[in-house]
Amino acid sequence: MSQRPYGVLAMSRYARETAFPAPVLHRLDGHAEVPGTVLIDDFAAADVREHLERAEILVTGWGCPPITADVLDAAPRLRLVAHAAGSVKHHVTPAVWERGIAVSSAADANAEPVAEYTRAMILLGLKGALRHAAEYPALGWPGEARRGDCGYVGRVVGVVGASRIGRRVMALLRDWDTTLLVSDPYLTPDEAVALGARLVDLDELCATSDLVSVHAPELPETRHLLDDRRLAMMRDGAVLVNTARGSIVDTEALVRHCVSGRLSAVLDVTEPEPLPADHPLLHLPNVTVTPHVAGAQGTEIALLGDYAVAEIARFLAGEPLRGEVTAADLPRLA
């Protein structure tokens, strides 16, 4: 009889194929008995109960349905939910923690692609490269007058939210000749210094930054955190980069500031999402909108499966989970 604990994959087929290609499944098989042919996307399906009854580990991903109290009643041996993606808010319910089941997220692994995307867009935004590219067909080769106010050297970059992604972005920018500001209600001045930044309130950050990069979680209190008042505080010619959540920025206010040409923006997330085809933000030369691609895409998604496998190995060895999510963490997470 196998000594490996029994596990089940609960996610969409796309998530299974991208996060758990053959090499990752092989590594998973070294730690747990997880049949690759069993894929749960509906806990109420007739053939699911026998697998839930045996499961000690639930490996979740995009498309996992909510893990309710009824689901847990059918899974009396469950000890770990290892999520091969970022946020667990959409499927892990309070009942999971109430029953003492450990929860892990691969948000750390997803943070790296987002942070690298953000660094790239910060550079392109400060150099004016995205706007020049959009204007090239109509305005042609930019002369000296259109090249003057650009570049990253000596600039001030403001980071809204010292989240795991916000911290990684600051780490990636530390070697640049830029001044880093950060605004986060849970951060101390000394912690900000350790990150290579200066802690300021959000109003000061908006007023003094050449580029503002948003990394706050989506919470009731962060809705429209960057509203018309704060967008109006931003310097003429400043750039807004948002890779967090669209609701953090007041879309209508941002449209007004970008239509006037006063601000530029790079948006990987929007509200609404997706934007309708005739939305002004999709047709402005000073706004770049990408379709929520900053996080793990394509070949990067296997990083999430690898992270989940490593977490399972740590859990079975009695080691701390690096991506553990507790009920107390949930209100502050994206």
UniProtKB/TrEMBL annotation:
UniProt GO molecular function: glyoxylate reductase (NADPH) activity; hydroxypyruvate reductase [NAD(P)H] activity; NAD binding
Record carries keyword NAD: yes
Alphabetized UniProt keyword annotations: NAD, Oxidoreductase
Residues covered by the D-isomer specific 2-hydroxyacid dehydrogenase NAD-binding domain: 122-294
Transmembrane intervals: none
InterPro entries: D-isomer_2-hydroxyacid_DH, D-isomer_2_OHA_DH_cat_dom, D-isomer_DH_CS, D-isomer_DH_NAD-bd, NAD(P)-bd_dom_sf
Domain D-isomer specific 2-hydroxyacid dehydrogenase catalytic intervals: 44-325
Claim: Oxidoreductase is one of the keywords in the record: yes
Top-level taxonomic group: Bacteria
GO CC term, one of those recorded: cytosol
Pfam families: 2-Hacid_dh (PF00389), 2-Hacid_dh_C (PF02826)
Family: Belongs to the D-isomer specific 2-hydroxyacid dehydrogenase family.
Listed name of the protein: Phosphoglycerate dehydrogenase-like enzyme
